[in-house]
Amino acid sequence: MTADPAAPFDRHAVRLHRDRAAVRLGPVTGLLAELAERLTERLDDTTRRFTRALDLGGRGVVAPLLAARGIETISCDLSPAMAARNPRPALAADEEYLPFAPGSFDLAVASLSLHWVNDLPGALIQLRQALRPGGLLLASLPALGTLGALRAALAEAEAALIGGAAPRVSPFPELRDCAGLLQRAGFVLPVADVEDIDLSYTSPLSLLAELRAAGEANALAERDRRIPGRALFAAALARLAGPDGRAGVRLRLAVLTGWAPEHSG
Q1: What confidence tens digit (pLDDT) does each residue in 192-247 have?
Q2: In this structure, is residue 4 part of a structural domain?
Q3: Nearest one of 116, 158, 148, 159 to 8, comparing CA atoms
Q4: What is the pTM of this model?
Q5: How far is 48 from 107, CA to CA, in rounded Å?
Q6: Peptide bond preceding 89: is omega within 30 degrees of 0, i.e. cis?
Q7: In a domain, 19, yes or no
Q8: How many CB atoms are closer than 10 A to CB 89?
């Protein structure tokens, strides 16, 4: 894996974060499973029956949902440790370099696993190529507006302390661009819609702990690699907490569906 100086994400850091999260995922498994279930429920909207699926980065919660529907599933993850959380067969594989032959699957599910990919159009093209004609892609990823309060609190606190702010929250795509990405990747009948999910935490620290537990720590290539001073997070968390001390955040979930063309050319 070589570093691209123009790439927004440090893929080595992404893998390390997921490696570490594989052993401490417990506290967020319920939320990840709920979000995955919301995504796979989209299968109820079609009469098509699927027999062989790719679970891309499902963190151990997607494959059981597909198995319950009688769908044979192969799981893969950038992190070998996270891949091992899935029922077999499972393998470690980079979302940007998928090792599957064309037409290997009639369904691909990517639940919250594409937002740390540097070449999202390229990853979508590879997913389309891995599908059989008439195969379906279901994907979810955070859209612009997700963690907006956290992003603002960190930027405001850091600007007040040192007069500037380093990037600390991943950039997210706009919903209006998502269907276009599917179309550019060669999918037909592309649809992108949004689900707003409001979450509440007993404290801002609980929010940060869950992000780390899920493997969602900062992996921006241009991140400040120095350990931030305690004053930064103390000031940011004070801005994020409500009158009752709780922290509320919004997950703006973009849900993407697209079909592989029935006929090529």
Answers
A1: 999 999 988 887 778 878 888 998 887 777 665 555 556 666 676 777 777 887 88
A2: no
A3: 116
A4: 0.87
A5: 10
A6: yes
A7: yes
A8: 12
